[in-house]
Amino acid sequence: MDKKYIERPKTFDKKEYDKDYKKQHYKHFSVYLTPELKERLDNYCSQAKISRTDFIRLALDVLEKQ
Fold first, then answer.
1. Does residue 10 have a pLDDT over 90?
2. Distance (Å, rounded) from C-alpha 8 to C-alpha 29?
3. Taking the alpha carbons of 38, 40, 41, 45 in that order, is the dihedral positive or negative?
4. Would you say residue 23 lies in a domain?
5. Number of alpha carbons in the 13 Å side-chain half-sphere of residue 14
6. Above 70 in pLDDT, residue 54?
7. Whole-model pTM over 0.85
8. 53 in any annotated domain
9. Residue 52, number of CB atoms within 10 A of its CB
10. Were both Cys, which of 1, 31, 50, 60 would link to 54 (CB 3.0–4.6 Å)?
11. Is residue 64 part of a domain?
């Protein structure tokens, strides 16, 4: 038998694992904004040192408390 063609067990594929994990635990959210609103959002997130995801989470918390 030629050693070159020996079937080897699958190794862990981190990229594939991450892809599957995202599919199971996250949903994609897309939105269209005016350039001015997008700039405001980016500036706020930069100054507050938060991600856009954190911004949405915080905004929802504030709105739900009203």
1. no
2. 39
3. positive
4. no
5. 0
6. yes
7. no
8. yes
9. 13
10. 50
11. yes
Helix axes 52-65, 35-48, angle to 10 degrees: 90
The dihedral over CA atoms of 38, 40, 46, 48, expressed in degrees to the nearest 10, equals: -130
Total structural domains within the chain: 1
Query: What pLDDT is recorded for position 21?
Result: 96
Per-residue pLDDT band at 65 (split at 50, 70, 90): very high
- Is residue 52 in some structural domain? yes
Residue 40: which domain range? 32-66
Minimal CA–CA distance to 53: which of 23, 26, 19?
26
Exposure b/e, 8-38, CB count within 10 A at least 16 = b: eeeeeeeeeeeeeeeeeeeeeeeeeeeeeee
